[in-house]
Amino acid sequence: MNSFASCPGPTRKPKHEGYWAGPEGKEAGSSIPLASTHRLRESQLNESTLTSPTRSLRRQKAIMSRPPPPMLSVPEKRTAAAELFRDRHFFGAAAFSDIRDARAAVAVPNPQAQPPASRRALLLRYHRLLFSARDDPCAFDEALSFTWNDAFRPHLKHAAASLRFEKAALVFNIGAAASRIAAAHSRATEEGVRAACWEFQRAAGAFRAVGQMMEEEAATTVDMSSQASAMLERLMLGQAQECCFERALAGGKSPAVCSKVARQAALYYEEAYAALVAPPLQNHFERSWVSQVQLKAALFNAEACYRHAIDLREKTEIGEEIARLQVGINAIVDAKRTARGAPGPLYDYVSRLEQDMNKSLEIAKEENYRIYLFRIPVATSLVPLPAASLVRFAPLNEILEAKSENGTQSP
Protein backbone atom coordinates (compact mmCIF):
# COMPACT_ATOMS: atom_id res chain seq x y z
CA MET A 1 0.00 0.00 0.00
CA ASN A 2 1.06 3.56 -0.55
CA SER A 3 2.73 5.35 2.30
CA PHE A 4 0.84 8.40 3.41
CA ALA A 5 2.32 11.82 3.85
CA SER A 6 2.14 13.36 7.25
CA CYS A 7 -0.41 16.01 7.99
CA PRO A 8 1.37 18.84 9.80
CA GLY A 9 -0.83 20.92 12.03
CA PRO A 10 -0.48 23.92 14.28
CA THR A 11 1.50 23.40 17.44
CA ARG A 12 1.34 26.99 18.73
CA LYS A 13 0.89 27.54 22.43
CA PRO A 14 -0.40 30.61 24.29
CA LYS A 15 2.17 33.36 24.38
CA HIS A 16 2.20 33.54 28.14
CA GLU A 17 0.21 32.24 31.01
CA GLY A 18 -3.12 33.95 31.61
CA TYR A 19 -3.74 34.95 27.99
CA TRP A 20 -5.27 33.17 25.03
CA ALA A 21 -3.60 32.99 21.61
CA GLY A 22 -6.03 33.94 18.85
CA PRO A 23 -6.59 32.02 15.61
CA GLU A 24 -3.69 33.82 13.94
CA GLY A 25 -1.28 33.10 16.77
CA LYS A 26 -1.54 36.66 18.11
CA GLU A 27 -2.96 37.91 21.33
CA ALA A 28 -6.68 38.33 20.92
CA GLY A 29 -7.61 42.01 21.24
CA SER A 30 -6.75 43.52 24.56
CA SER A 31 -6.19 40.04 26.07
CA ILE A 32 -8.78 37.74 27.66
CA PRO A 33 -8.33 36.76 31.31
CA LEU A 34 -7.55 33.12 31.97
CA ALA A 35 -10.84 32.53 33.83
CA SER A 36 -12.80 33.78 30.82
CA THR A 37 -10.70 31.57 28.59
CA HIS A 38 -11.63 28.53 30.66
CA ARG A 39 -15.33 29.37 30.36
CA LEU A 40 -14.97 29.90 26.62
CA ARG A 41 -13.17 26.60 26.11
CA GLU A 42 -15.69 24.76 28.26
CA SER A 43 -18.67 26.09 26.29
CA GLN A 44 -17.03 25.33 22.94
CA LEU A 45 -15.98 21.87 24.12
CA ASN A 46 -19.49 21.08 25.33
CA GLU A 47 -20.94 22.18 22.00
CA SER A 48 -18.39 20.05 20.14
CA THR A 49 -18.99 16.91 22.18
CA LEU A 50 -22.75 17.31 21.96
CA THR A 51 -22.81 17.75 18.20
CA SER A 52 -20.25 15.03 17.43
CA PRO A 53 -22.55 12.05 18.21
CA THR A 54 -25.32 13.80 16.29
CA ARG A 55 -23.08 14.14 13.26
CA SER A 56 -22.03 10.51 13.65
CA LEU A 57 -25.66 9.36 13.84
CA ARG A 58 -26.61 11.40 10.80
CA ARG A 59 -23.65 9.98 8.89
CA GLN A 60 -24.67 6.43 9.87
CA LYS A 61 -28.28 6.97 8.78
CA ALA A 62 -27.07 8.49 5.51
CA ILE A 63 -24.91 5.44 4.80
CA MET A 64 -27.75 3.05 5.54
CA SER A 65 -30.01 4.95 3.10
CA ARG A 66 -27.47 4.76 0.27
CA PRO A 67 -27.17 1.83 -2.11
CA PRO A 68 -24.32 -0.38 -0.80
CA PRO A 69 -21.15 -0.71 -2.89
CA PRO A 70 -21.30 -3.43 -5.58
CA MET A 71 -19.78 -6.86 -5.00
CA LEU A 72 -17.78 -9.07 -7.37
CA SER A 73 -18.99 -12.48 -8.49
CA VAL A 74 -16.86 -15.14 -10.15
CA PRO A 75 -17.82 -16.43 -13.62
CA GLU A 76 -18.15 -20.17 -14.08
CA LYS A 77 -15.78 -22.33 -16.05
CA ARG A 78 -17.18 -23.79 -19.27
CA THR A 79 -16.59 -27.41 -20.22
CA ALA A 80 -16.70 -29.40 -23.42
CA ALA A 81 -18.77 -32.56 -23.79
CA ALA A 82 -16.99 -35.73 -22.68
CA GLU A 83 -17.61 -39.34 -23.69
CA LEU A 84 -18.03 -41.50 -20.61
CA PHE A 85 -17.23 -45.19 -21.01
CA ARG A 86 -19.05 -47.34 -18.50
CA ASP A 87 -17.15 -50.57 -18.95
CA ARG A 88 -13.68 -49.05 -18.79
CA HIS A 89 -13.95 -46.19 -16.33
CA PHE A 90 -17.29 -46.17 -14.52
CA PHE A 91 -17.77 -49.87 -13.91
CA GLY A 92 -18.39 -49.13 -10.22
CA ALA A 93 -21.08 -46.54 -10.86
CA ALA A 94 -24.52 -47.51 -9.64
CA ALA A 95 -26.25 -45.05 -11.96
CA PHE A 96 -24.09 -44.57 -15.03
CA SER A 97 -26.89 -43.02 -17.08
CA ASP A 98 -27.53 -40.49 -14.30
CA ILE A 99 -23.86 -39.50 -14.32
CA ARG A 100 -23.89 -39.09 -18.08
CA ASP A 101 -27.08 -36.98 -18.00
CA ALA A 102 -25.84 -34.89 -15.09
CA ARG A 103 -22.64 -33.99 -16.91
CA ALA A 104 -24.57 -33.10 -20.03
CA ALA A 105 -26.69 -30.72 -17.94
CA VAL A 106 -23.53 -29.10 -16.57
CA ALA A 107 -21.84 -28.75 -19.97
CA VAL A 108 -23.98 -25.90 -21.35
CA PRO A 109 -22.53 -23.19 -23.62
CA ASN A 110 -23.49 -20.28 -21.35
CA PRO A 111 -23.79 -21.29 -17.68
CA GLN A 112 -24.09 -17.64 -16.62
CA ALA A 113 -27.49 -17.47 -18.31
CA GLN A 114 -28.98 -19.92 -15.81
CA PRO A 115 -30.18 -18.76 -12.36
CA PRO A 116 -27.30 -19.31 -9.91
CA ALA A 117 -29.39 -21.32 -7.42
CA SER A 118 -30.56 -23.72 -10.15
CA ARG A 119 -27.06 -23.90 -11.51
CA ARG A 120 -25.63 -24.82 -8.12
CA ALA A 121 -28.21 -27.59 -7.71
CA LEU A 122 -27.06 -29.15 -11.02
CA LEU A 123 -23.40 -28.91 -10.04
CA LEU A 124 -23.98 -30.44 -6.61
CA ARG A 125 -25.97 -33.31 -8.07
CA TYR A 126 -23.26 -34.16 -10.59
CA HIS A 127 -20.57 -33.89 -7.92
CA ARG A 128 -22.41 -36.34 -5.66
CA LEU A 129 -22.93 -38.81 -8.49
CA LEU A 130 -19.22 -38.79 -9.27
CA PHE A 131 -18.53 -40.27 -5.85
CA SER A 132 -20.14 -43.50 -7.03
CA ALA A 133 -17.55 -43.72 -9.79
CA ARG A 134 -13.99 -44.93 -9.48
CA ASP A 135 -11.68 -42.25 -8.07
CA ASP A 136 -8.32 -43.78 -8.89
CA PRO A 137 -5.27 -41.58 -8.20
CA CYS A 138 -3.70 -42.94 -11.38
CA ALA A 139 -4.49 -41.05 -14.57
CA PHE A 140 -6.97 -42.58 -16.98
CA ASP A 141 -6.01 -43.15 -20.58
CA GLU A 142 -6.55 -40.35 -23.06
CA ALA A 143 -9.86 -41.84 -24.22
CA LEU A 144 -11.47 -40.22 -21.16
CA SER A 145 -10.42 -36.60 -21.07
CA PHE A 146 -12.17 -33.72 -19.33
CA THR A 147 -11.71 -30.27 -20.87
CA TRP A 148 -12.42 -27.07 -18.97
CA ASN A 149 -11.94 -23.45 -20.05
CA ASP A 150 -10.41 -20.75 -17.88
CA ALA A 151 -13.17 -18.80 -16.12
CA PHE A 152 -11.51 -15.43 -16.76
CA ARG A 153 -9.85 -16.16 -20.12
CA PRO A 154 -12.28 -18.54 -21.85
CA HIS A 155 -10.03 -18.96 -24.88
CA LEU A 156 -7.57 -20.81 -22.62
CA LYS A 157 -8.39 -24.41 -21.78
CA HIS A 158 -6.92 -27.46 -20.11
CA ALA A 159 -7.70 -31.14 -20.67
CA ALA A 160 -6.86 -33.94 -18.25
CA ALA A 161 -7.75 -37.62 -17.93
CA SER A 162 -8.38 -37.23 -14.22
CA LEU A 163 -11.49 -37.40 -12.07
CA ARG A 164 -9.70 -35.24 -9.49
CA PHE A 165 -9.45 -32.46 -12.06
CA GLU A 166 -13.12 -32.92 -12.97
CA LYS A 167 -14.19 -32.68 -9.33
CA ALA A 168 -11.98 -29.65 -8.68
CA ALA A 169 -13.52 -27.84 -11.65
CA LEU A 170 -16.97 -28.66 -10.28
CA VAL A 171 -16.08 -27.27 -6.86
CA PHE A 172 -14.75 -24.12 -8.55
CA ASN A 173 -18.09 -23.64 -10.29
CA ILE A 174 -19.97 -24.34 -7.05
CA GLY A 175 -17.97 -21.51 -5.49
CA ALA A 176 -18.69 -19.29 -8.48
CA ALA A 177 -22.41 -20.01 -8.17
CA ALA A 178 -22.28 -19.15 -4.45
CA SER A 179 -20.62 -15.82 -5.27
CA ARG A 180 -23.34 -15.05 -7.82
CA ILE A 181 -26.05 -15.87 -5.29
CA ALA A 182 -24.35 -13.66 -2.69
CA ALA A 183 -23.91 -10.71 -5.06
CA ALA A 184 -27.57 -10.95 -6.12
CA HIS A 185 -28.90 -10.66 -2.57
CA SER A 186 -30.35 -7.28 -1.63
CA ARG A 187 -28.22 -5.91 1.18
CA ALA A 188 -30.79 -3.28 2.07
CA THR A 189 -32.22 -5.61 4.72
CA GLU A 190 -30.72 -7.50 7.66
CA GLU A 191 -31.82 -10.80 6.14
CA GLY A 192 -30.23 -9.99 2.80
CA VAL A 193 -26.92 -8.95 4.33
CA ARG A 194 -26.81 -12.07 6.48
CA ALA A 195 -27.57 -14.36 3.51
CA ALA A 196 -24.96 -12.66 1.31
CA CYS A 197 -22.37 -12.96 4.08
CA TRP A 198 -22.91 -16.70 4.42
CA GLU A 199 -22.81 -17.33 0.66
CA PHE A 200 -19.53 -15.43 0.34
CA GLN A 201 -18.07 -17.65 3.07
CA ARG A 202 -19.24 -20.71 1.12
CA ALA A 203 -17.54 -19.35 -1.97
CA ALA A 204 -14.33 -18.75 0.01
CA GLY A 205 -14.34 -22.35 1.22
CA ALA A 206 -14.93 -23.68 -2.28
CA PHE A 207 -11.99 -21.79 -3.78
CA ARG A 208 -9.77 -22.83 -0.90
CA ALA A 209 -10.73 -26.46 -1.55
CA VAL A 210 -9.89 -26.07 -5.26
CA GLY A 211 -6.35 -25.05 -4.36
CA GLN A 212 -5.95 -28.09 -2.14
CA MET A 213 -7.44 -30.48 -4.71
CA MET A 214 -5.15 -29.22 -7.46
CA GLU A 215 -1.90 -29.56 -5.50
CA GLU A 216 -1.13 -32.92 -7.13
CA GLU A 217 -2.11 -31.88 -10.65
CA ALA A 218 0.85 -31.24 -12.91
CA ALA A 219 -0.74 -28.41 -14.92
CA THR A 220 -3.95 -26.45 -15.15
CA THR A 221 -5.34 -23.10 -16.21
CA VAL A 222 -4.40 -20.00 -14.22
CA ASP A 223 -7.82 -19.69 -12.59
CA MET A 224 -7.27 -22.99 -10.73
CA SER A 225 -3.68 -22.31 -9.71
CA SER A 226 -2.77 -22.10 -6.05
CA GLN A 227 -2.27 -18.34 -6.39
CA ALA A 228 -5.70 -17.79 -7.94
CA SER A 229 -7.40 -20.04 -5.40
CA ALA A 230 -5.83 -18.12 -2.51
CA MET A 231 -6.70 -14.77 -4.07
CA LEU A 232 -10.34 -15.73 -4.64
CA GLU A 233 -10.60 -17.04 -1.09
CA ARG A 234 -9.35 -13.72 0.34
CA LEU A 235 -11.61 -11.75 -1.98
CA MET A 236 -14.70 -13.69 -0.92
CA LEU A 237 -13.74 -13.32 2.75
CA GLY A 238 -13.29 -9.59 2.18
CA GLN A 239 -16.78 -9.32 0.75
CA ALA A 240 -18.20 -11.38 3.62
CA GLN A 241 -16.42 -9.10 6.11
CA GLU A 242 -17.86 -6.11 4.25
CA CYS A 243 -21.32 -7.53 4.93
CA CYS A 244 -20.39 -7.72 8.62
CA PHE A 245 -19.39 -4.05 8.52
CA GLU A 246 -22.77 -3.15 7.06
CA ARG A 247 -24.47 -5.13 9.81
CA ALA A 248 -22.35 -3.41 12.45
CA LEU A 249 -23.39 0.01 11.15
CA ALA A 250 -27.05 -0.94 10.92
CA GLY A 251 -26.92 -2.43 14.41
CA GLY A 252 -25.54 0.76 15.94
CA LYS A 253 -22.25 -0.78 17.06
CA SER A 254 -19.68 1.54 18.60
CA PRO A 255 -17.21 3.40 16.36
CA ALA A 256 -14.36 1.33 17.84
CA VAL A 257 -16.06 -1.94 16.83
CA CYS A 258 -16.93 -0.64 13.36
CA SER A 259 -13.33 0.47 12.88
CA LYS A 260 -11.98 -3.00 13.70
CA VAL A 261 -14.43 -4.71 11.33
CA ALA A 262 -13.62 -2.26 8.53
CA ARG A 263 -9.89 -2.68 9.04
CA GLN A 264 -10.14 -6.45 8.66
CA ALA A 265 -12.13 -6.04 5.44
CA ALA A 266 -9.35 -3.79 4.17
CA LEU A 267 -6.73 -6.42 5.04
CA TYR A 268 -8.58 -9.10 3.08
CA TYR A 269 -8.91 -6.81 0.08
CA GLU A 270 -5.25 -5.79 0.32
CA GLU A 271 -4.17 -9.43 0.21
CA ALA A 272 -6.38 -10.08 -2.81
CA TYR A 273 -5.07 -6.98 -4.58
CA ALA A 274 -1.44 -7.90 -3.91
CA ALA A 275 -2.02 -11.28 -5.57
CA LEU A 276 -3.81 -9.71 -8.55
CA VAL A 277 -0.87 -7.47 -9.45
CA ALA A 278 1.79 -10.21 -9.13
CA PRO A 279 2.58 -13.16 -11.45
CA PRO A 280 0.91 -15.37 -12.52
CA LEU A 281 -2.33 -13.42 -11.98
CA GLN A 282 -0.97 -10.12 -13.28
CA ASN A 283 -2.77 -9.15 -16.52
CA HIS A 284 -4.97 -12.27 -16.31
CA PHE A 285 -8.01 -10.51 -14.84
CA GLU A 286 -9.99 -7.64 -16.30
CA ARG A 287 -8.80 -4.20 -15.26
CA SER A 288 -12.21 -3.46 -13.73
CA TRP A 289 -11.75 -6.40 -11.36
CA VAL A 290 -8.35 -5.22 -10.20
CA SER A 291 -9.54 -1.63 -9.81
CA GLN A 292 -12.58 -2.63 -7.79
CA VAL A 293 -10.48 -4.66 -5.36
CA GLN A 294 -7.95 -1.82 -5.08
CA LEU A 295 -10.68 0.73 -4.42
CA LYS A 296 -12.38 -1.52 -1.86
CA ALA A 297 -9.10 -1.82 0.05
CA ALA A 298 -8.80 1.97 0.14
CA LEU A 299 -12.47 2.39 1.04
CA PHE A 300 -12.28 0.18 4.10
CA ASN A 301 -8.94 1.55 5.22
CA ALA A 302 -10.62 4.97 5.10
CA GLU A 303 -13.71 3.67 6.90
CA ALA A 304 -11.49 2.22 9.63
CA CYS A 305 -9.72 5.57 10.03
CA TYR A 306 -13.00 7.47 10.02
CA ARG A 307 -14.63 5.27 12.66
CA HIS A 308 -11.49 5.37 14.79
CA ALA A 309 -11.43 9.16 14.45
CA ILE A 310 -14.99 9.36 15.79
CA ASP A 311 -13.89 7.31 18.78
CA LEU A 312 -10.88 9.59 19.29
CA ARG A 313 -13.10 12.67 19.20
CA GLU A 314 -15.26 11.24 21.95
CA LYS A 315 -12.06 10.87 23.99
CA THR A 316 -10.94 14.42 23.06
CA GLU A 317 -7.80 13.07 21.37
CA ILE A 318 -8.07 15.65 18.62
CA GLY A 319 -4.47 15.51 17.44
CA GLU A 320 -4.60 11.84 16.49
CA GLU A 321 -8.13 12.31 15.14
CA ILE A 322 -6.78 14.79 12.60
CA ALA A 323 -3.92 12.46 11.65
CA ARG A 324 -6.22 9.45 11.20
CA LEU A 325 -8.67 11.41 9.06
CA GLN A 326 -5.82 12.62 6.85
CA VAL A 327 -4.48 9.08 6.44
CA GLY A 328 -7.91 7.82 5.39
CA ILE A 329 -8.42 10.66 2.92
CA ASN A 330 -4.99 10.05 1.41
CA ALA A 331 -5.85 6.37 0.95
CA ILE A 332 -8.92 7.30 -1.09
CA VAL A 333 -7.14 9.97 -3.13
CA ASP A 334 -4.27 7.64 -4.02
CA ALA A 335 -6.60 4.80 -5.04
CA LYS A 336 -8.89 7.02 -7.12
CA ARG A 337 -5.89 8.31 -9.02
CA THR A 338 -4.81 4.83 -10.21
CA ALA A 339 -7.93 2.62 -10.01
CA ARG A 340 -9.42 2.91 -13.49
CA GLY A 341 -12.52 1.05 -14.64
CA ALA A 342 -14.17 0.37 -11.28
CA PRO A 343 -17.99 0.59 -11.25
CA GLY A 344 -19.49 4.07 -11.06
CA PRO A 345 -21.55 3.33 -7.93
CA LEU A 346 -18.36 2.37 -6.09
CA TYR A 347 -16.64 5.61 -7.15
CA ASP A 348 -19.68 7.57 -5.96
CA TYR A 349 -19.72 5.77 -2.61
CA VAL A 350 -16.01 6.37 -2.07
CA SER A 351 -16.31 10.02 -3.10
CA ARG A 352 -19.12 10.64 -0.63
CA LEU A 353 -17.04 9.12 2.16
CA GLU A 354 -14.14 11.34 1.13
CA GLN A 355 -16.39 14.41 1.33
CA ASP A 356 -17.63 13.44 4.79
CA MET A 357 -14.10 12.86 6.03
CA ASN A 358 -12.94 16.21 4.65
CA LYS A 359 -15.77 17.95 6.50
CA SER A 360 -14.82 16.20 9.72
CA LEU A 361 -11.17 17.10 9.13
CA GLU A 362 -12.00 20.78 8.65
CA ILE A 363 -14.02 20.84 11.88
CA ALA A 364 -11.30 19.03 13.82
CA LYS A 365 -8.56 21.33 12.51
CA GLU A 366 -10.55 24.45 13.32
CA GLU A 367 -11.36 23.29 16.84
CA ASN A 368 -7.77 22.26 17.44
CA TYR A 369 -6.54 25.61 16.15
CA ARG A 370 -8.94 27.62 18.27
CA ILE A 371 -9.31 25.49 21.39
CA TYR A 372 -7.10 22.45 21.94
CA LEU A 373 -3.74 23.21 20.32
CA PHE A 374 -2.78 19.52 20.34
CA ARG A 375 0.27 18.36 18.42
CA ILE A 376 -0.61 16.49 15.21
CA PRO A 377 1.35 13.20 15.01
CA VAL A 378 2.91 12.28 11.69
CA ALA A 379 1.37 9.32 9.87
CA THR A 380 4.48 7.16 10.23
CA SER A 381 4.27 7.40 14.02
CA LEU A 382 0.72 6.02 14.19
CA VAL A 383 0.33 2.43 15.33
CA PRO A 384 -1.62 0.11 12.98
CA LEU A 385 -5.33 0.07 13.66
CA PRO A 386 -6.65 -3.11 15.32
CA ALA A 387 -8.70 -5.53 13.23
CA ALA A 388 -11.33 -8.14 14.04
CA SER A 389 -12.31 -10.91 11.62
CA LEU A 390 -15.93 -12.05 11.90
CA VAL A 391 -15.87 -14.50 8.98
CA ARG A 392 -14.28 -17.82 8.02
CA PHE A 393 -14.20 -20.05 4.98
CA ALA A 394 -16.93 -22.71 5.02
CA PRO A 395 -15.73 -26.34 5.21
CA LEU A 396 -16.17 -28.33 2.01
CA ASN A 397 -18.73 -30.68 3.56
CA GLU A 398 -20.96 -27.68 4.38
CA ILE A 399 -20.57 -26.36 0.85
CA LEU A 400 -21.57 -29.68 -0.70
CA GLU A 401 -24.63 -29.82 1.54
CA ALA A 402 -25.94 -26.45 0.38
CA LYS A 403 -29.68 -26.08 0.21
CA SER A 404 -31.70 -24.44 -2.50
CA GLU A 405 -33.49 -21.14 -1.95
CA ASN A 406 -36.72 -22.84 -0.94
CA GLY A 407 -34.90 -24.62 1.88
CA THR A 408 -34.88 -28.13 0.38
CA GLN A 409 -31.77 -30.18 -0.19
CA SER A 410 -30.46 -30.07 -3.74
CA PRO A 411 -31.38 -33.29 -5.55
Automatic annotation (TrEMBL):
<feature type="region of interest" description="Disordered">
    <location>
        <begin position="1"/>
        <end position="31"/>
    </location>
</feature>
<dbReference type="GO" id="GO:0005768">
    <property type="term" value="C:endosome"/>
</dbReference>
<dbReference type="Pfam" id="PF03097">
    <property type="entry name" value="BRO1"/>
</dbReference>
<dbReference type="InterPro" id="IPR004328">
    <property type="entry name" value="BRO1_dom"/>
</dbReference>
<protein>
    <recommendedName>
        <fullName>BRO1 domain-containing protein</fullName>
    </recommendedName>
</protein>
<dbReference type="GO" id="GO:0043328">
    <property type="term" value="P:protein transport to vacuole involved in ubiquitin-dependent protein catabolic process via the multivesicular body sorting pathway"/>
</dbReference>
<dbReference type="InterPro" id="IPR038499">
    <property type="entry name" value="BRO1_sf"/>
</dbReference>
<feature type="domain" description="BRO1">
    <location>
        <begin position="28"/>
        <end position="411"/>
    </location>
</feature>
